[in-house]
Amino acid sequence: xxxxxxxxxxxxxxxxxxxxxxxxxxxxxxxxxxxxxxxxxxxxxxxxxxxxxxxxxxxxxxxxxxxxxxxxxxxxxxxxxxxxxxxxxxxxxxxxxxxxxxxxxxxxxxxxxxxxxxxxxxxxxxxxxxxxxxxxxxxxxxxxxxxxxxxxxxxxxxxxxxxxxxxxxxxxxxxxxxxxxxxxxxxxxxxxxxxxxxxxxxxxxxxxxxxxxxxxxxxxxxxxxxxxxxxxxxxxxxxxxxxxxxxxxxxxxxxxxxxxxxxxxxxxxxxxxxxxxxxxxxxxxxxxxxxxxxxxxxxxxxxxxxxxxxxxxxxxxxxxxxxxxxxxxxxxxxxxxxxxxxxxxxxxxxxxxxxxxxxxxxxxxxxxxxxxxxxxxxxxxxxxxxxxxxxxxx
Length: 394
What we know:
This protein starts with a helix and ends with a strand. Mean pLDDT is 83; it is low at 1-25 and 241-249. Helix 7 (175-190) links the parallel strand 5 (164-173) and strand 6 (197-201). It is globular, with a radius of gyration of 20 Å. The chain has 2 domains: 2-206 and 352-393, 3-Layer(aba) Sandwich (Rossmann fold); 209-347, no CATH class. The protein has helices at residues 2-14, 28-34, 37-40, 101-112, 126-131, 141-159, 175-190, 207-222, 226-238, 253-260, 267-293, 312-318, 323-338, 344-350, 357-362, 379-389, and strands at residues 50-55, 73-78, 84-91, 116-120, 164-173, 197-201, 366-370, 392-393. An 8-stranded mixed β-sheet has the order 1-2-4-3-5-6-7-8, sandwiched between helices. Helices cover 48% and strands 12% of the residues. InterPro entries: AB_hydrolase_fold, MlaA.
């Protein structure tokens, strides 16, 4: 029965026709907090054979001592008992790692359906920015996905002797969904994987616009004041009995959603928690990118920082910086330095699926699905997805 249910879901996911899916929660805020993956499919295996691998992509001398904990690129792999099977890459959402709850759930679904799986972190995660990003300034889809593509090839080479792949597939949710399409575009030229199907779940059309919208959720609730954001964060952490346990040691989206998902919250509170999860990812993005690029926005003397340095003052300087802060203070100046004619409009376009608009329109292998009231999309985004991908809103 479990196998049958998983194959039904897989058939829906990999179908190239316009389709819809039934989501059991009408409220988009609650759906985001609880998590779509855990609600869509009953009967999925609780545990699958999952192993984490490490690859040294960057030279260690290029990684500051303070970040040596993440110097190696990590990915997770699950294999079938039968070596001969299709393989699917599962791409994490914005700022998420390969080992988050939603990624693991997707791996379990596809493993039950007979697929080998490889999970890859988001280009905006700490892990990827430090270990695999060529410039540690993510945000431009084509450039980011060249790095992801390189990591995918290395990951596959690491495990290829254990499998006999019949076909390659790729899927992702949120930013991972947008990445999936761009990676397929890159692969059309490189022809390493020759993906048979590509699936996008709730992809942002324009990363910049979606990020600013998520930033606003938190600022509307807190007035954009750091002390109010800190109070909300402390209130959230106080919900964990006995203090911060190892389960919540990495404070990110999974942590926050797990803490508050059982609460009765107003829409404003739900927006605030969604915004808080994103803001913490943005704070990491600001700090790591500033440090790695020596932009000196938050870290004035990075050359003096080592693994023994007390980082409190540096974290304090970031002060819950937004994604817009990252773009204005680090990202755009970095790109501008390498191209004096570069404009903010160039950045916004290159952070958008419009960079592969023609490919999206003509490729028969890509399918997309999104919620009718998806939080990170506006009407223009929905129109774009519908036009280019015949994407169904449900």
